[in-house]
Design brief:
It is a single chain. This protein starts with 25 loop residues before the first helix and ends in a 7-residue tail after the last strand. Helix content is 27%, strand content 27%. Strands 3-2-1-4-5-7-6 form a seven-stranded mixed beta sheet, sandwiched between helices. Helix 4 packs parallel to helix 5. It is built from five helices and seven strands. It is α/β, with parallel strands linked by helices.
Length: 186
C-alpha cells in the first residue's frame, strides 16, 4: 500500500495485521481520487473508519489543508499516527480513537470532503451516511464518497443532500453524495 500522488508520493504505508481491516485497493483509490481531485486543495477532510489512514493521507498529500482520522480500534489509531509520521503529514492531522457514529453526533465542525469506508455489510455505512446528513456535517457544496460492496444499496437523503453517481470497480462500488447548499440547518 503506497501513496499514489502529491508530496508523499511513493511512500509505503504500514498495514494492520489480521482481517479486521480491508484496505482500499490501489485501483479503487485511484478512481476515488480522480472523482475528488478538484475538491481537495486547501480543504478540510474527514476519514471516518480510517483503518490505516490511507485515504486521508492521500488527500493530505494531494493538498488538503487538514484531515481528521477516526477509528474505533486503538491499534488502528496508533497505526494512522505512525503512517502520518512516515509521510511527514502529522502537523496537518488529528487522530481520534473512538466510535465513528459518536464522533459524528458530537462533532462541532464541518468538512468539505468525507470518506466513508467502514467494514462491509455491518450497517455502519448506512448509519454514518444518515448521521452526516442529520447533523449536517458536510459543508455546502461538499462531497462525501462511500465505498461499499456492489450489491449494497445506500439511502437517498433529504435536501440539501443528494445521492449522485455510482462508480463500479469489480465487486466494489463508490457512491458520491453532495451537499447542494441552501440553508444551514445547524
Amino acid at each position: 500500500m503506497r501513496v499514489i500522488s502529491g508530496t508523499a508520493r511513493g511512500r509505503r504505508l504500514k498495514e494492520l495485521q489480521g482481517m479486521e481491516t480491508r484496505p482500499t485497493t490501489d485501483r479503487v483509490k485511484e478512481a476515488l481520487f480522480n472523482i475528488v481531485q478538484f475538491e481537495l486543495p486547501g480543504r478540510q477532510v474527514l476519514d471516518l473508519f480510517a483503518g490505516t489512514g490511507q485515504l486521508g493521507i492521500e488527500a493530505l498529500s494531494r493538498g488538503a489543508a487538514r484531515c481528521t482520522f477516526v477509528d474505533q480500534r486503538r491499534d488502528a489509531a496508533a497505526l494512522v499516527r505512525e503512517n502520518l509520521k512516515l509521510t511527514g503529514l502529522s502537523q496537518q492531522a488529528r487522530v481520534v480513537q473512538g466510535d465513528s457514529i459518536s464522533f459524528l453526533m458530537s462533532c462541532r465542525e464541518k468538512f468539505d470532503v468525507i470518506f466513508l469506508d467502514p467494514p462491509y455489510l455491518t450497517g455502519a455505512l448506512e448509519k454514518a451516511v444518515e448521521t452526516v446528513s442529520a447533523f449536517d456535517i458536510l459543508r455546502e457544496h461538499g462531497i462525501m464518497v462511500c465505498e461499499s460492496p456492489l450489491e449494497q444499496e445506500l439511502p437517498a437523503l433529504a435536501a440539501p443532500y443528494e445521492r449522485g453517481k455510482e462508480y463500479r470497480y469489480g465487486k466494489i462500488k463508490l457512491t458520491v453524495y453532495r451537499h447542494l447548499g441552501g440553508e444551514d440547518r445547524r
